[in-house]
Structure formats: C-alpha cells, structure tokens
Prior knowledge:
The structure holds two protein chains of two kinds. Chain A is of the alpha/beta class. Chain A contains 15 helices and eleven strands. Helices cover about 35% and strands about 10% of the residues of chain A. In chain A, the strands form four sheets. In chain A, strands 6-5-8-9 form a four-stranded parallel sheet, with helices on both faces. In chain A, strands 7-11-10 form a three-stranded parallel sheet, covered by helices on one side. Chain A has a two-stranded antiparallel sheet with strand order 1-4. In chain A, helix 13 crosses helix 14. In chain B, about 40% of the residues are buried. The longest helix of chain B has 21 residues, at about 35-55. Helix content of chain B is about 35%, strand content about 25%. Chain B is globular. Chain B is of the alpha+beta class. Classes of the chains: A alpha/beta, B alpha+beta. At the A-B interface, helix 13 of A face helix 1 and helix 2 of B.
Amino acid sequence: xxxxxxxxxxxxxxxxxxxxxxxxxxxxxxxxxxxxxxxxxxxxxxxxxxxxxxxxxxxxxxxxxxxxxxxxxxxxxxxxxxxxxxxxxxxxxxxxxxxxxxxxxxxxxxxxxxxxxxxxxxxxxxxxxxxxxxxxxxxxxxxxxxxxxxxxxxxxxxxxxxxxxxxxxxxxxxxxxxxxxxxxxxxxxxxxxxxxxxxxxxxxxxxxxxxxxxxxxxxxxxxxxxxxxxxxxxxxxxxxxxxxxxxxxxxxxxxxxxxxxxxxxxxxxxxxxxxxxxxxxxxxxxxxxxxxxxxxxxxxxxxxxxxxxxxxxxxxxxxxxxxxxxxxxxxxxxxxxxxxxxxxxxxxxxxxxxxxxxxxxxxxxxxxxxxxxxxxxxxxxxxxxxxxxxxxxxxxxxxxxxxxxxxxxxxxxxxxxxxxxxxxxx
Amino acid sequence: xxxxxxxxxxxxxxxxxxxxxxxxxxxxxxxxxxxxxxxxxxxxxxxxxxxxxxxxxxxxxxxxxxxxxxxxxxxxxxxxxxxxxxxxxxxxxxxxxxxxxxxxxxxxxxxxxxxxxxxxxxxxxxxxxxxxxxxxxxxxxxxxx
Lengths: 426, 145
C-alpha cells in the first residue's frame, strides 16, 4: 500500500481535524483536492504547495512541515539565512540587528540575510533581461509555488521563466563558501538553514526544480524562530555588525519589492495572490502581455509577508518593512569579492520541465476520454456545488471518466431520481 | 479517429467575456495533452481572431475541431467585413477605434500574428456580410515529425 511519493510536499492534512467540508477544495488553484470518504485528500501530482488550503481551512486541518531547530545538531557550523520578510515579524524596537542577534541566540554561528543576496540577484536579473530581448515577458523564478503552477497549469510558459537561481540559493552559496574558506572546514560540516515564511520553499529545498540538490541544507519556519524569541526580545543582544542588506533587498519581502530593486529601463508588472497570478498567466499565454519585460509573480497575497509561516498580520508586516526601509540605506556595500558568486552560479543548472496533468499519455485515448467528459458534463447540473467531493462539475466528469468517481455521487442527479421514484409510487 | 468539436458564441463589444472561447479551447487542449508549444500557437491565433470579432465585427462564433493530428479553427462574424485583407495582413495596421485602443486592444498585428502561428490560414471577407477566419495548426510540426 505504501508507495514512494513522486514529489515531496510540505503542505499536509491532519486527517483527524478534517471535517470533509469543501473550503480547501474550492480554493485550490490546481484542483488538487478531492473529498473522499468524508476527508480531504491531496493529489500530489497537482499540488504546488502554495498553502491556499492552509489559509482557508476553518478547522486548521491543513498544515505545513519544515525542519525542527534540532536539525542544527547535525552540523558543526550553522548558518542562518533569514528571508527578507522576517523584518516585518517583530516589534520595531527589536530592529533587524536584534532579529539577527536573536538568530545567533537560537543556536546559529553565523547569519547572512537573504535580502543581501536579493540585492546581488536583482542586478543579475537586470542584466539577463537586457541581454535576452527575444523572450517577453520574462517571469520571475523567485516564488517556488508560481514556478510549480506554471509547470502544472501553464507548461507553455516554462520558457518565459527567467532561468536564474533565487536570492535564497545565492545567499546559501555565498555563505557556505565564505565560511568554509575562512574556517578551513569542509562544506559538509556547514549547515545552511533558510529561515522561511513559505512552505513552498521547504519543498524547493527538499525537491528542487532546476538543480539536482539545493545549496540549502534545512528550512526552519519563521514561526518557530518567533516562538523562541518573542518572550524575551528586550534581552536579545543586537548585532548591527551582522546587518548586510539595505532597503533594496529588504523590500523583496513584500510585493513589488523585487521589481523595484531591478534597475534599468524595463517595464515590470507585479502580481500577488495565486488566483491573480493565474489571471496574469492566462493573459501571458494569449501573448497579450508582451509589452512587459518582466513579471514579478507571487503566490501569497502581499508577497512573502503573506507566507503561511509568518506570524504577524501581513498588512502590518508589510508596513513595518516599508517603515524600516525608510530608515536604512538603500543598499549596503557589495564589496565582498570573496563571496561574490560567479556568473555561472546565477543560472539554473537544469532545464525546468513541464508537469502537465493530461487525461492520458496516448492522444487518441485522451481524445476519447475528453469526448466522454463532454457527454457526462451535459448530464450534470453545472452548479459546482462540490457535494460530490470534486471542485467543479467538469472535474467530477473527469474523475468519472478516470474511474475515480461515480455519476451517482452527484446529489442533484440523485435528488431528481428520488423525485421520479416518489412520483412513481403515487 | 476521435474528433472533438467545440463551439462558442462571441459577442461584439463584450469585453467582460472576451477571450473566454480561446481560454476554454486552451484548457481542453491542455487536458488532451497537446504539446505546450503547439497549444501556444493555437491559442495566440484563436485569441487574436476572437478579439477581432469582439473589437471590430458584430456577433460571431468560434468552432474548433480537435483531432489527434490537428486543430481546425473557424471564427465567423456577420459583418461589416474587412475592406482590404491584404492591408490588414500588414504588421502594425489597425483600424481599432480610439476608445478600444485605450483599453489596450487594437494595436494591429492581429492577422499577421495568426499567419505566423498557423500552418494553414484562409481569410474570407465580404462587405457587409462579414469575415471568416479559418486556420489549422498541426500537432506534429517540424521538430517532432
């Protein structure tokens, strides 16, 4: 019964807490959820770990996994690379210096902000956009859920994804290399941990796209760091010496920040919230957005501040990051030649591949199934009520053809059958 | 050989639903498993043709016949027709009224873009009867064949 899953997923279901309601199923952007036997179940090929189901579940039956702080024990030297959005999570009096100091108190030996890596990546993105005029619009590769959304639902747009690694990857590469050189130890003894607002980042570290292995060794949720620090933030030793990023990198933590940090004369579109992203990708597929050079697309509303592993309200967190940004320099010194990544390190090592969901690998069979689906759809009420356990009548018809559901599971049809029977009795 | 036929109405000036026929065809082709680059060519062509009806013509329709080998699309409207098809085939040529350009439509390039993306294209237009844009995109082109 146990089979090896094809993909790692950070987003999971607590079956005991699931009441089998249809909230998550209706909200899922890839129709990856069905209600079977009174419980939600996630179709792993379709899931992109965006966390919409976690956000929407009224019973808190959906959750996401990350690595425990205990994992630090597996490494001799531990480096934390916190996501830019962490700056919005704590009261302002802690300051970024205090957050970084707090990470040291959590057991890390060193900290390097991903916001710093973001500044470096931003410059490379600008260069790539300029040197590749033949493809428009280019789409950011930074949001792992959006990358997976494109693989699953918009395979024709894979070549629009800018084939560059993310700020997280660059920061990890820089941090590990520099520490290994400075300390004279093997890279294997150094653990680089991404402090993440995002379940999809957990997935992208365990099961990366565009590379065989991630340069990141573990992912600790921002929520876990928050728990550790929040009760004694006034005692945390601030470490201004560790602060490397300026406002330019910090603002990557909210929507629009990535675009703003890409310099040069380029037209950039920014979209956040997975369902909004889908609308923009539809238009991109129609060749209707070729006037844009670059699209920053983020699955979470508000950008990374809206990530599931954050604690603070995303609007408050967003304002905080903006406020902090006004008080600090635009960017810090990039003069760290020993850490600077090589040109090649910015590029994805492997080509991104589509993961389309098709009815059948054989096109003739797929067409026949589609014909059956259209026939079944004619019989269905088209209410998309979800009572059958499928998000729409169309997906129900598809499940019937694939042998995963039966027509009798449609309660609207059953009700009509019942009425006919009652009439017959009289 | 299994064939699937999809039909859609296209309403003139209905910008709310503009593009919905192309979108429905696109999703069907994705499910069937047409190669992404071929779907892209079909959809770009359909979208252009559909938008032409919404922007320039009167009410119309789109019919798509899908077989394992090709997709055959016919987009019809009932007027007013294109005065000079040859001219309309030139890049950048647009007759879209100003209010429509303000919406971001009507930048021209419609018909040339369809030509670029299809394997066969026929445009039949008579004033004032209307226009029929008929095109075929084959599933196996150059690289796969």
